[in-house]
Amino acid sequence: MEPSWLETRWARPIYLAFVFCLALVLLQAIKLYLRRQRLLQDLCCYPAPPTHWLYGHQKFLQEDEMEKLEELVEKYPCAFPRWVGPFQAFLYIYDPDYAKTLLSRTDSKSQFPNQFLSPCTGKGLLNLDGPKWFQHRHLLTPGFHLNILKPYTEVMVQSVNTMLDKWEKMLITQHTNVEAFEHINLMTLDILLKCAFSQKTNCQINSTNDPYVKAVLELNKIIFYRMNSFLEHHDIIFNFSPEGHHFQELHQVLHHYTEKIVQDRKKSLQDDRTQNTQKRTYQDFLDIVLSVQAENADSFSDNDIWSEVNTFILAGHGTTAGGISWLLYCLALNPEHQQRCREEIRGILRDGSSITWNHLGEMSYTTMCIKEALRLSPPIPSISRELNKPLTFPDGRSLPAGMNVVLSIWGLHHNPAIWENPKVFDPLRFSPENSDQRHPYAFLPFSAGPRDCIGQQFAMIQVKVAMALILLHFEVTPDPNRPPILSSQSVLKSKNGIHLCLKKIP
Ligand code: HEM
Prior knowledge:
alpha+beta; CATH 1.10.630.10; 3-stranded antiparallel sheet; 20 helices; 12 strands; 56% helix; binds protoporphyrin IX containing FE
């Protein structure tokens, strides 16, 4: 019988293609095997919890991650390797000396989770590296000077009062239940929009009215969804998914909105200069970024402005909202500390009708409670770096360049080697006499070193203003039916929100 045309004509190319693909697969398998061997060798001096050959520690840490982390911190001093599948591992660290060694350097940010943030914010301070980060940090630091921040206090008071008016309207009798994070998140976004662009969006009353506010809130949700969905970590899969499409649309909204605000402001500054007028009472972040651009036109493009302004909004509102919400929850669980803060605030502000910058410095007990809440529930539970060069820790153990290191701020703040009874809310840990002897890298809610949080003063002012006004008007207790369920993403959240009962203080 004669061979078919397929056998004669196509047999050889098909055979060659098959061999080629097989060789590729084999090569990839060898590469992955060598990568695993390399990681095993590099991490051999760090004892690890038992690992599954395929899932690594993912399944083990999937449920109750924070509680399990606490167990591991106690069992493995200083550090442990965490395997994410068979070919990827991070070294988790939670010891102050280890933290100091890492944070004194300027290694690059790890790809995860910045790769999901970058398409949304562009390349701003949070995810820039190398000389460009250094240049931006240097140019933008004066924008966070106390003299610039002081006038923002009034803006913050207005936004907190808007939230409190909303809460008062929700009161059915003297009590009401609220999911605090949602309200506080809108309030911090309102503050940032006023301080960043002088935009009064009324977003606390009608969050769906403003396309930009809607886009920011939804983009945040999509970024969190993507972080938790392993398949959608891949750009191609994500871009073709419904969430990916929606992300593109929202990104366009964000881009056009900021673009228009920047162009309008440039024009109005030009008009002010020609007519010699100045309409606003304070310098907002956009003024500062534009003045940086005016003096450094070659090194600060319009795209840089766009990225920095969006970074400021996205890095600033969810973190601060988390800080305020968890603090309220801690005070709800600890009524004696709540009452002590209220008495202190009453003593300083009386009825709270006027609250100024100078008052904030007097709130010493409230500040200790804020710090203790930031210790127990750090809004950013971990940060990560990819080592640019080899690193040696003070105990002599080292890591090669290229290794990913995660500083678990949660682990550090719950480390029983540093904090006695770490789960107990005890603000007196932060009294001057109790803080004196503590390692400077034991408490790092805002990180430390050259890449610490540029917005930390700004955040602390907001937390203090919000706390003072909330505690003067409301007593907070936890909702016994809906305790928070911790969820570790790039920001510490509760899967079911943070539910509180509010009681109006007559
Ligand atoms: C309670 C509130 C906040 C907390 C707990 C917090 C925490 C942090 C932490 C831990 C980092 C280090 C991130 C890393 O190394 O990967 C950081 C960086 C940063 N934060 Fe905050 N932050 C807060 C509020 C804010 C606010 C209000 C702003 C802006 C107005 C802001 C802007 C930034 C920026 C731009 C960076 C990057 C700095 C750099 O790398 O040079 N943060 N923040």
